[in-house]
Automatic annotation (TrEMBL):
InterPro entries: AcOrn/SuccOrn_fam, Aminotrans_3, Aminotrans_3_PPA_site, Class-III_PLP-dep_AT, PyrdxlP-dep_Trfase, PyrdxlP-dep_Trfase_major, PyrdxlP-dep_Trfase_small. This is Acetylornithine transaminase. One of its GO terms (molecular function) is pyridoxal phosphate binding. Its cofactor is pyridoxal 5'-phosphate. Pathway: Amino-acid biosynthesis; L-arginine biosynthesis; N(2)-acetyl-L-ornithine from L-glutamate: step 4/4. Keywords: Amino-acid biosynthesis, Aminotransferase, Photorespiration, Pyridoxal phosphate, Transferase. One of its GO terms (biological process) is photorespiration.
């Protein structure tokens, strides 16, 4: 039997985290026998106050966000709180993500129970929550199959790839199959290079050009322009939001979507509905396109699906799925057991017809309130939207009103060209809370005169 080698214990004198990259004593680490270990002193991640958090963010995080000067540290239902305990009524829902609000008990239970069982194994293996979620999505939609992603932009990237692969698959002898795309004015499809190419706002694209070529932007709602371009035979897919969110809460007409469907069928192009923001109950329908009776070849989802955890999904017909082979696309994290369990808990609630009916009712109530309280203001041009996806179009920048509302305890968003106030609260919001939001908006209207 070999001898047992005994190694002496030693302690390290560790500098604060900000100095960990600096060598100690010309690269040598001091070690001493039989000494107490000095506890590391990492950078504090939890701060006592909002000011410190904001100052530290400026030092350590890439400056790609123009954040509102608010630190949000906790939430419950439709309320959010900062470290000092100040309360905010949340009518932004993490940009239409927190459909069940904050801390929904069934969602919390699903996440904690699954975290104790299995969190991640990759898509090299089968997992039960992923299959169960896919069954629910397929069973409640036009689709036959689902591809999971981690976000809305990734769902649209998948739809881009699937569109091009589909055209090659059904035209194997065509040396130049259709590879181009149509998107529309005021569209937003994401910020990765393919989805970015489909996003209409030039200032999103210009710093990163050249983006993916082959995208033509047409006027949202222009039927003849779309038909003419689709007929040229070079369009792999048409991407359209049935209700535009980021673009300013604009709804398509039934005639427009029907014309796109018919033209795509005639030309062999695919029709893709981006319901990342308007889908999953936001409009009072499970899917926004249901209101039109027009169905796509693919639909992309994300924001509310997992109640705040990162997920996306590309739903496809069997015809499209048949073109996709092993290895054509993939993701390490997508469709993990943890996220899919959270999504099942969200889907089970939102898909309930009584829940969807309540969203429609509350949306009508809120628009009526807003018309009563805001409609007479000369800056208010239009109040529009479906369900709890409402836009207040102004003739001036919406930022002063958004800022004033935040200072009064109400969180709302902008949209469009910055002249639309966007209301996308948790779908569980009460009529009493909606009334309170309308009152704050009314009280803050003078900010538009003071700042413009």
């Amino acid at each position: 039997m070999g001898s047992l080698k005994l190694f002496p214990s030693f302690s390290l004198s560790v500098s604060p985290a900000t100095n960990l990259r600096r060598p100690l004593n010309n690269g040598r680490v001091n070690a001493s026998l039989n000494m107490d270990v000095e506890a590391p002193n990492p950078l504090k991640l939890k701060s006592n106050g909002s000011t410190e958090v904001i100052e530290e963010e400026a030092k350590f995080i890439v400056g790609s966000y123009a954040r509102a000067p608010v630190v949000l540290s906790s939430g419950k239902g439709c309320k959010l709180y900062d470290p000092e305990g100040r309360e905010f009524l949340d009518c932004a829902a993490g940009i239409a993500v927190n459909a069940l609000g904050h801390g929904d008990p069934d969602w919390v239970r699903a996440v904690t129970e699954q975290a104790n069982i299995l969190t991640h194994v990759s898509n090299a293996y089968y997992t039960i929550p992923q299959v169960e979620l896919a069954k629910r999505l397929v069973g409640n939609s036009f689709a036959d199959r689902v591809f999971f992603t981690n976000s809305g932009t990734e769902a649209n990237e998948a739809a881009i790839k699937f569109s091009r692969k589909f055209q090659r698959f059904i035209h194997p002898d065509n040396k130049q199959p259709a590879t181009e795309f149509i998107s529309f004015t005021n569209s937003f499809h994401g910020r990765t290079m393919g989805a970015l190419a489909l996003t209409s706002k030039e200032h999103y694209r210009s710093p990163f050009e050249p983006v993916m070529p082959g995208v033509t932007f047409l006027e949202y709602g222009n039927i003849q322009a779309a038909i003419d371009l689709i007929r040229n035979g070079m369009i792999a897919a048409v991407f359209v939001e049935p209700v535009q969110g980021e673009g300013g809460i604009y709804s398509a007409t039934k005639e427009f979507l029907q014309a796109l469907r018919s033209a795509c069928d005639d030309a062999g192009s695919l029709l893709v509905f981006d319901e990342v923001q308007c889908g999953l109950g936001r409009t009072g329908y499970l899917w926004a396109h249901e209101a039109y009776g027009v169905f796509p070849d693919m639909m992309t989802l994300a924001k509310p699906l997992a109640g705040g955890l990162p997920i996306g999904a590309t739903l496809v017909t069997e015809r499209v799925a048949s073109a996709i082979a092993h290895g054509d696309h993939g993701s390490t994290f997508a469709g993990s057991p943890l996220v899919c369990s959270a999504a099942i808990s969200v889907f089970n609630k939102i898909a309930n017809p009584s829940f969807l009916s309540s969203v429609s009712k509350k949306g009508d109530y809120m628009k009526e309130l807003l018309n009563q309280k805001l409609g007479g203001n000369p800056h208010v041009k239009e109040i529009r939207g479906w369900g709890l996806m409402i836009g207040i179009e102004l003739d001036v920048s919406a930022s002063p009103l958004v800022d004033a509302c935040r200072n009064s305890g109400l969180i709302v968003l902008t949209a469009g060209k910055g002249n639309v106030v966007r209301l996308v609260p948790p779908l569980i919001i009460s009529e009493e809370e909606l009334k309170h939001a309308a009152e704050i908006l009314h009280e803050c209207l003078p900010a538009l005169d003071n700042n413009n």
